[in-house]
Design a protein that fits this description.
It is a single chain. This protein has about 525 residues and is α/β, with parallel strands linked by helices. It has four domains: about 110 residues, Glutaredoxin, CATH 3.40.30; about 200 residues, NADH-ubiquinone oxidoreductase 51kDa subunit (Rossmann fold); about 80 residues, Ubiquitin-like (UB roll) (Roll), CATH 3.10.20.600; about 90 residues, de novo design (two linked rop proteins), CATH 1.20.1440. About 40% of the residues lie in helices and about 15% in strands. It is built from 22 helices and 15 strands. The strands form four sheets. A five-stranded mixed β-sheet has the order 12-11-15-13-14. Helix 6 crosses helix 13, helix 10 packs across helix 13 and helix 17 runs antiparallel to helix 18. The protein is globular. The relative contact order is 0.10. The protein binds iron/sulfur cluster. Iron/sulfur cluster binds next to helix 18 and helix 20.
């Protein structure tokens, strides 16, 4: 048997490192240390239930496991096969206890292509990744494909960027590949500053090799010999596991000079960010890597052509790169068989807010918001009614209850005035004030604006002032017109996407919850 213990950041905060020690000493006490394996894995996604333990081969799931429970788990489950009832998942509606990973609704309705390996791999051990087929896509690329055939495969898969814009990765790769300058770069964006979103952190912490493998495949296709990973310094475990993965990949000849004797050279460097939300914007991120202040620049010439040190540079986020080995191994047709017409594959969402089951969920593009919230999320807490869901991070929009049957994909959400964005899904119940929600997000963006251009710097400040006035019962109907006018100017005149998309939470709440603004103004509360 093997006892796996989630050692992602969420479970660590709940004591999973001590729990591993407790299991080890209990096994030693019982003389079972050579018969039972203990594995420290990456994040399973169900962080609120930590520490999460899965026992193989049976697939028994235990939640909220503490060091004090180790003796019982060994004594009962490992030695006699008896279940420890108190650690099992209890269905919030029926109270029924569920034993197996695949029966628990939070996991049952997901399709975990990118996240699935997290629960099996010790991220500090490259051999775990290799045993699960890791680096086979890189081998296939180097020895059985050409740069052109890789570009064609990724283009045919229609993999769209998972970091916000949804731009087709294949087209971006092609632009950098075709640029005349022979020195090119590939980059990973692990800046992830949206409140509540942590899917890139979980991948980088739990399965860093899949990102490195995707990046190396991209470098081969594009013609880059050097790659950079921009990672938030506030993600210490992701940084630690990334450095360990880099070291091991180099030792195994999977990165560096003449990879596996193929003649392809590729080195990767890490840049630890300093915590600015705006540094996730492509030109700001590249400026920061160059050692300057991470501010966006006008993109008359795209970074795919003139980016890092003015060289053609292809930037994708962690989740996008993590999809690449799967596309190469299983083919573009397999990838295209998942999702909707315009949005292929799966997407990882951070499901948070007033929902019973919070955490990371990976679903096929096109799954409805209602299914995510009610089937996977288990509905709302305390039997409350749902009012809205905010998608796409702080620059996303708020979608009302009557539109929950909308499929989640790039095009459907943008028609509703929102976006997939980085994948934040914040659930709000009937008691949530939507004006206050708009003010929270606008205030966040005002704090994070770099201040370089006036429409964003001053526009956001004005929006915050007006929204504060309205929530304090001091607003007027003229304020409503000013909010809309100012939002229109910002969408047109701001330099980067932070400012251009900042009014989204405001505009969607004005569109779908206008009566709440009017109530504040008329009833003066
Ligand atoms: Fe900076 Fe905002 Fe202008 Fe972007 S839109 S450059 S964040 S001031």
């Amino acid at each position: 048997p093997c006892i796996t213990v989630c050692c992602g950041t969420g479970c660590r905060a709940l004591g999973s490192v001590k729990l591993v020690d407790a299991f080890r000493s209990e096994l030693a006490k019982q003389g079972l240390e050579n018969q039972v394996d203990i594995k420290e894995t990456g994040c399973h996604g169900f962080c609120e239930k930590g520490s999460v333990v899965v026992i193989y081969p049976q697939n028994i799931c235990y939640f909220h496991v503490k060091s004090e429970d180790a003796a019982d788990v060994i004594e009962k489950t490992i030695k006699t096969g008896e279940l420890v009832e108190r650690l099992l998942y209890a269905d919030p509606a029926t109270g029924e206890k569920l034993v197996y990973h695949h029966d628990i609704p939070f996991y049952k309705y997901q399709k975990r292509i990118v996240l699935g390996d997290n629960e099996h791999i010790n991220p500090q051990n490259i051999e775990d990744y290799i045993q699960r087929g890791g680096y086979s896509a890189l081998v296939k690329t180097l020895f059985h494909m050409t740069p052109e055939s890789v570009l064609e495969e990724v283009d045919k898969a229609n993999l769209r960027g998972r970091g916000g814009g949804g731009f087709p990765a294949g087209k971006k790769w092609r632009t950098t590949h075709d640029a005349a300058d022979p020195v090119k770069y590939v980059l990973v964006n692990c800046d992830e500053g949206d409140p509540g979103a942590f899917m890139d952190r979980s991948i980088m912490e739990g399965n860093p090799h899949c990102v490195l493998e995707g990046l190396a495949i991209g470098a081969f296709a594009i013609g880059a010999k050097e790659g950079y990973i921009y990672v938030r310094a506030e993600y210490p475990l992701a940084v630690e596991n990334l450095y360990a993965a880099l070291r091991q990949a180099e030792e195994y000849g999977l990165l560096g000079k003449n990879i596996l004797g193929s003649g392809f050279d590729f080195v990767v460097k890490v840049h630890e960010g300093a915590g600015a939300f705006v540094s996730g914007e492509s030109s700001a991120l590249m400026t920061a890597i160059e050692g300057r202040v991470g501010e966006p620049r006008p993109k008359y010439i795209r970074t795919a052509i003139k980016g890092l040190w003015d060289k053609p540079s292809n930037l994708n986020n962690v989740e996008t790169w993590a999809n690449v080995p799967h596309i190469i191994n299983k083919g573009a047709d397999w990838f295209r068989s998942i999702g909707t017409e315009g949005s292929k594959g799966t997407k990882i969402f951070a499901l948070v807010g007033k929902v019973n089951n919070t955490g990371l969920v990976e679903v096929p593009m096109g799954t409805t918001l209602r299914d995510i919230i009610f089937k996977i999320g288990g509905g709302l807490r305390d039997g409350k009614k749902i009012k809205a869901v905010q998608t796409g991070g702080p620059s996303g929009g708020c979608i009302p209850e009557n539109l929950l049957d909308s499929p989640v994909d790039y095009d459907a959400l943008s028609k509703l005035g929102s976006m997939v964005g980085s994948g934040g899904l914040i659930i709000m119940d009937e008691e949530t004030c939507m004006v206050d929600i708009a003010r929270y997000f606008i205030n966040f963006l005002s704090d994070e604006s770099c201040g370089k251009c006036l429409p964003c710097r001053e526009g956001l400040r004005q929006l915050v002032d007006i929204l504060t006035r309205i929530t304090e019962g001091k607003g007027t109907m003229v304020d409503m017109d000013t909010l809309e006018d100012l939002s229109g100017v910002m969408s047109e005149a701001c330099l980067c996407a932070l400012g251009q998309q900042a009014p989204n939470p405001l505009l969607t709440t004005l569109k779908y919850f206008r009566h709440e603004y009017i109530d504040h103004i008329k009833n003066k509360h």
